[in-house]
Amino acid sequence: MRGKKLAAAWFVLAVLCLTGFSRLWGGEAMHSQAAGSRNENQSESQRGEGRAYQERTADGQTGESRAAGNGETGEAAQAGDGTGNDRGRIARGVKIGEVDVGGLTQEEAKQAVEEYFAPYRNGTLCLSIHGEEAEIGFGQLGMSWDNPEVISQAAACARSGNLLERYREERRIEREEEVLPFAYSVEDGLLLAWVNAQAEEHNTPAVDAAITRRGGSFTVTPSADGLSVDVEATLERIRQELTGYQGGELRVEAVTEVLEPKYKEEELSLIQDCLGEHSTSYNAASADRSQNLVNGTGFIDGVVLLPGETLSLYDYLYPCTEENGYRSAIAYVDGGYVDSIGGGICQISTTLYNALLKAELKVLTRSPHSMTVSYAEPGFDSAQAEGSKDLSFMNSTEYPVYLEAWAVDGELHTALWGRDDRPDNREVVYYNEIISRVSPGDPIYTEDPSLPAGTTVTDQQPYDAIKAALYKQVLIDGEVVETTLLHTDRYRASPAKIRVGTGAPAESPTEAPAEETPAQ
C-alpha cells in the first residue's frame, strides 16, 4: 500500500515538472516573431519558435544558423527572435554615448548619432593666451566621428547565444543600460599648425635692461618681460578638455611661461658705488702698444656680472690677432723680449687685478709674470698668456657689478662698480714683502756690425731674481684685526743685454739711445 502511494506521488511530480517546462517554453515562444508553426491554434510568433525548437532538437542546429522554414538568414532571425523586439531593431536600453538608440534600426541610429554630433562639429575652440583670445571652428580642425562601427556593435547587443540567453541579456540591458563609446577627434596636424601659429603671434622675447657709464654717471634702459607659449602642453590641455566637450564653445587657457629678462632695470639701478679702482701708466708714444691697450680695454668695458657669475679675461681679450684689432708689440717670452701680436695686454690684467683686490671680489685664477714689470710692484702683477695664464674672478657680492675700463693718454684705468655694503669703519690694505733678491749677474754683450764701432745699444735692462709675498690687512677703526697671506711669487733673473757696434767708426764714439724698456 505504501509503495503504491509513493509511485503515485512520483507520477504527480513528473506531471507538474513537464507542465512547468511546457509553460516556460511557451512563454519564450510568446516573444518570438519567427514564421512557421505546427500548431494551428498558436499565434504566428509561437508557431515560428516552435518550429525552430523542433529543428534544434532534431538536428542540433541553432536558430542562428537556420531560418525557421521561411528562407531568412540567421542575422534576420536574430533580429526577430521572440524576445519582444521589432525585426531588425536595436535592443532597448542600448545607448551610444548620450544617444539612446534602443528600438531604432541601424540607419535610424546612425542618423540620431550624426544629429547629436552636429553641435560638436559646428562648435568653436577659443584659446586664451595671456589675456588675448583666438577662435577657430572645429570643422576647420577636421573634427570627425571616429567610431561609426559602433552602430553595428549596438545592433549586435542581445543577439548571441540561444534563445534563453538572448532573452536574459535583453532583460539585463533594459534594466542596466548598455552604453557604448562615442568617439570623436580633431586632426592632430591641423590643431598643431593652428596652435603653432597662435604661439608665434604671441611669443615675445624678454628685453634686458642695459647700463652705461658716461661723463661720470650711469644710464639704465628699461627691461621688459617676455612670453613663451608651451605648444606641447597647450595641445595636451586641449585634448583633455575635449574629453568632456558637448558642443558649442570650448574655452581653453594656453600654457604659457613668463620670460624674465636676465638684466632687470631695478637691479642695475642699484649700481652706484665704486667697489675698487686702479690705474697704471704707459708710454703713449709707443703707438702699437698703446693701440693694444685701447683695444683690449674696449672689450671688457661695460661688462655686467650678476651675483655668482664669473669673468675670464681670456674669453674677452683673445684671440690676439690683427683681425681682432691688435698690433705687434714687445712681450715677455722665456726670460726675454719678443715682438708679439697683442703685446702689452698683461698691463690690462695687472690693472684689473689691483682693482679686484680693492673691491674684495673673489679672484679665481691669477699668475705672476716670469720677470718683474715696471708698472707694478712684485706680487701685485697679473700675467696673460694664451693657454697657460689667465685672470678670472667671480662677482661674490649680492648685487650686479659693472666693469669700467679705458686707456687714454698714457693712463690705463679699471674700476668695479656695484653696491657697497661694507662698513664705513672698515678698511683693507695690501702690501708686499720682498723675501729674497738676487742680482742677474754681468750683462750679455753681442757684436753688431750694423752699429758704428764704439757705440752700444741696451736692448734689455737687468732683472733681479725676486721672491715676494703679498698680504692683505683688514682694519676696523684704524686697528688691524686680520692679516692674510694671499700668495708668494717668484720672478726669474735676467741680465742686461747690450749690443756693441763693430761697423765703421763714427766721427765721435757715442752710446746709441737704448730701446724702450717694455712694460709688458
Topology:
Blueprint: H1 2-30, H2 44-59, H3 74-79, E1 94-96, E2 99-100, H4 106-121, E3 124-129, E4 132-137, E5 144-145, H5 150-155, H6 163-176, E6 178-180, E7 184-185, H7 188-202, E8 211-214, E9 217-220, E10 226-229, H8 231-242, E11 249-253, E12 256-259, H9 265-268, E13 273-281, H10 287-300, E14 304-305, E15 310-312, H11 313-317, E16 328-333, E17 336-341, H12 346-359, E18 362-365, E19 392-394, E20 401-408, E21 411-418, E22 426-438, E23 444-452, E24 456-460, E25 465-476, E26 479-491, E27 497-503
Parallel strand pairs: 1-6, 3-11, 23-27
Antiparallel strand pairs: 1-2, 3-4, 5-7, 8-9, 10-12, 13-21, 14-20, 15-19, 16-17, 18-19, 20-21, 22-25, 24-27, 25-26
